[in-house]
Amino acid sequence: MIVLRNETAIVMGAILFALLAIGVLLLFLGLRARARAAIVSSDNRRLEAMLRTSTALAMVVRGDGKVEMSAGLADWFGLPAPPRSLVEMSAGDAGLTTDDAAMLAHDVAVAQRSGRAFDRTMRPQGSARSLSLRGARAPAEFGNGVFVWVHDATDTRGEIERLREGSARMREAYDALTGLIEAAPLPMWYRGADLRLTMVNSAYVAAVEGRDATDVVTRGLELVEGSDRGGPIAGATTARGHGRPTEQVLPATIGGSRRTLRIIDVPLPTGGVAGFAVDIEELEQARNGAKRFAEAQRGMLDRLSAGVVQFGGDRTLEFYNQPFRRMFAMRAEWLVDRPEFDRVLERMRESNRLPEVRDFPGWKAERRDWFVGADGATEENWHLPGGTHLRVVAQSLPDGGLLIIFEDRTEQVQLASARDTLLRVRTATFDNLFEALGVFAADGRLQLWNNRFRALWGVEEEFLSTHPRVDAFAERVASKLATPARSGLISDLVRSATGERQQRGGRVELADGRHFEFAAVPLPDGNALFTLLDITDSRRAEYALRERANALEAADKVKTQFVANMSYELKTPLTSISGFAEMLHGGYAGKLPEQATSYTEAILDSVERLGLLIDDVLDLTRGDEGAQIERGDVDLAAVTRIAAGAVQPAIKRHKIDFAVEVARSVGRVQGDQRRLREVIEHLLRHALAALPQGGRILLHADGNATRARIIVSDDGPGLDADSIARAFDRFAEPHLQPGGERALGLGLPLARQFVEAHGGTINLVSELGQGTLVTVELPRR
Asked: For 68, phi and psi rounded to 5 degrees?
């Protein structure tokens, strides 16, 4: 029993030992496998990272048709999940198209059988990616499989397409440029590095009269003549040497005609030189014509009344005319030196020929901008000291210069101001006239009217503002007339004035009893002026005056007859008194005492005045009949002296200082000698009646080639304004002076009556305390 137990213990120990050994071995193997697994895991992560960052992803197609690919590659193909076979790579609207999937399956099958690699480009459905697939047989570990590397060639393909399109555009541009050069009407050519012609166009061939371009190049036919120093080769050499285009103007014979060509040579990066020629013969002729035109234009500008000045692109004076020099008081010697624009303005300012401004530098800078003005001409008005008005027009020129025109508008401004004032006065006058005025145009429309016109006809301003025709206006105002049927007269009058240019007028009565005098007057501009004047009051006064005149005429006849009879009746006793007084004064009744002699002289003087007064009364009562004169040749100097002698006795009695001046120029006149003598006597007696003793009277007579003049002046007390106003009134109330010498004052009215009968004039000037002066002027014929 004890032995059995020992053996059992030994066996159990051996088993435990074996188990322990196996555990140690398994632990060793596990640790080594773990280490290897860690290495493999690290390698897998590295490879996976490389695959993730690679521009190409791989898929494996096994021999049984199974497909292995990553989710990222499935996304490239537009699939929601990795497919399990090639058939699943085409899934309706996603993945490859049916045709692309079939071609891929064919390529894979060929690679499995023959081991031949394949390349193919495919575009998944609904995707903008372009995928490049490269397949080859897989290693043996994968069985009879195929590795397919998929590369995203979207960017590369797009670049290739862009390069291909760019190349196509460049080729098209080259072809177009070649065609343009060939079709260009200008001769064009290209020289190689040795400056020999290598290419010419058809225009060049035609200009040099060659067969074709090859013939021209082979023979080296040049377009223009010249040597190496001044010909086409020299221009090409200069262009290539300086590295920039050059121009030459050279003569050439083309088509048998002498032409002027501008040759342009352009160096190219290839070492060659391209060139073309422009025919400028017409341009040169046009330039010469423009030059002649400019000279003619400047000659014309020099004859203008306005001042003209022109500045060049460098702002120096190029041209001026004589009115400009005179207008701004500039010396010709100074202008010949071509001063600059700023200096010219300064000289104008020194001559006081510029407007007064506070900031002259700023003002001058603003005028300097005229050179670059792009909005057409600039116009200003300059008001110079002294009242001169200048209209200034500045026009920038295409060459950068400036043309300025100075027009003196002083007279126009003054006339315009006067015209504006006249228009304002005329408008105010037109609106405030008592007459009703309306202006009708040539087409019969009412153009203008004043307030009186509208109020007279009682029409609204709105109606007149429509400028009605005369027919419509006449119809509108017909009811205002006493006889509405006469409204057509307005239309007839306006048509007569506008069409026939005749003035017509008349009188019309309104329905309210007022009377108007109307007229239609043709105006110079073809219009017609229609006027209406209210004559209601004058019409009534006319009736009253006519009745009164009839009554006065009857009374005047009675008065005239009475005065005439009384005058003749007074003449008889007056003659007796005069005769007996003369007899007494002459001593027929014996010698009279000295006092009685003075009495008789007074009687004679009174009788004389009374006789003259009776004659004056008779003349006045005769009116126009008494003013009738007999025409004859009258020596006015003799008449003047006779009249002076007639009043000499009265002058002596009143002790008056009497001076008579008769010039030779008084001459002779055509008239009535008796009436002219009476005129002078009336003037002298009028002066004598106003003078106290010791006064002074001057009688002066002279004349010229057309008129004779008689002047009577005195130093008496003079007349007041009321007396002057009534001096020539034959019906004035008696105006007695001390001594009663003036009596009824009939001398001046009779003098005026006789003077006017001779076609002359009489004028009286008087001032209280200074005397009186009467002037008579008589025509020679």
From this structure: -120, 125
- To the question of domain 184-279 being in CATH 3.40.710.10, the answer is no
Residue 737 pLDDT greater than 50, yes or no:
no
636 in Cβ contact with 708 (< 8 Å): yes
Q: What is the mean pLDDT of the chain?
A: 80
Q: What's at 746, amino acid-wise?
A: L
pLDDT grade for 518, boundaries at 50, 70 and 90: confident
Tell me: the pLDDT tens digits for 276-306? 888 887 777 777 777 777 777 777 776 777 8
The whole-number pLDDT of residue 369 equals 85
> Under 8 Å CB-to-CB from 667, ≥6 apart: which residues?
636, 637, 703, 708, 780
Put the strands of the sheet holding 67-68 in their side by side order: 67-68, 56-61, 146-152, 131-137, 118-122
Nearest to 676 by CA among 632, 624, 611: 632
For the chain, the residue count is 781
Tell me which of 208-217, 494-503, 605-614, 647-656 is least confident: 605-614
Q: What is the largest CA-CA distance in the chain?
A: 251
Residue linked to tokens 């300012």: 349
Question: Which DSSP letter does residue 184 get?
Answer: -
What's the fold here for domain 433-534? Beta-Lactamase (3.30.450)
Under a CB-based contact definition with an 8 Å cutoff, are residues 704 and 665 in contact?
Answer: yes
Cβ contacts of residue 147 below 8 Å, gap of 6+?
58, 59, 60, 135, 136, 137, 138
pLDDT at 718 > cutoff 60: yes
Q: Phi/psi at 369 (nearest 5 deg)?
A: -70, -10
Q: What is the pLDDT of residues 398-439, one digit of tens each?
A: 888 888 888 888 888 888 788 878 777 777 776 777 788 888
What proportion of the chain, given as a percentage, has pLDDT over 90?
Answer: 7
Q: Specify the fold of 285-414.
A: Beta-Lactamase (3.30.450)
For the domain made up of 54-152, the CATH class stated in words is: alpha beta
The vertex-201 CA angle with 283 and 281, nearest 5°, equals 10
> What are the backbone dihedrals phi and psi of residue 389, each rounded to the nearest 5 degrees, phi first?
-115, 125
Q: Which residues lie closer than 8 Å to 728 by C-beta, 6 or more apart?
A: 748, 749, 752, 762, 764
- Reference 408, options 427, 387, 423, 437; nearest CA is 387
C-alpha radius of gyration, the chain, whole number: 67
How far is CA 643 from each of CA 294, 648, 662, 676, 677, rounded to the nearest angstrom?
85, 9, 12, 9, 6
Instruction: DSSP for 390-452, please give it.
Output: EEEEEEE-TTS-EEEEEEE-HHHHHHHHHHHHHHHHHHHHHHH-SSEEEEE-TTSBEEEE-HH
Mean pLDDT in residue range 537-543: 75
Return the structure tokens found at 463. Answer: 């109606």
pLDDT tens for 701-714 read 999 989 999 999 99
Instruction: Output the six-digit token pair for 593.
Output: 């005492």
Count CB atoms within 10 A of the CB of residue 368.
14
Distance CA 699, CA 710 (A): 7
With CA atoms as reference, report the closest residue to 471 among 498, 508, 446. 446
Q: What is the value of pTM for the model shown?
A: 0.33
Q: Are 191 and 236 in contact (CB under 8 A)?
A: yes
> What is d(CA 182, CA 164) in angstroms, rounded to the nearest whole number?
27
What is the band of 59 on the pLDDT scale with cuts at 50, 70, 90?
A: confident
The more confidently predicted of residues 155 and 129 is 129
Q: Given this model, what pLDDT does residue 626 score?
A: 46
Distance of alpha carbon 596 from alpha carbon 150, whole angstroms: 179
User: What's domain 623-779's superfamily in CATH?
Assistant: Histidine kinase-like ATPase, C-terminal domain (3.30.565.10)
The residue whose two tokens read 């049984």 is 64
Closest CA to 698 of 712, 708, 678, 719: 712
Out of 285-299, 612-626, 725-739, give the one with best mean pLDDT.
285-299
What is the four-CA torsion angle of 286, 287, 288, 292, rounded to 10 degrees? Answer: 100
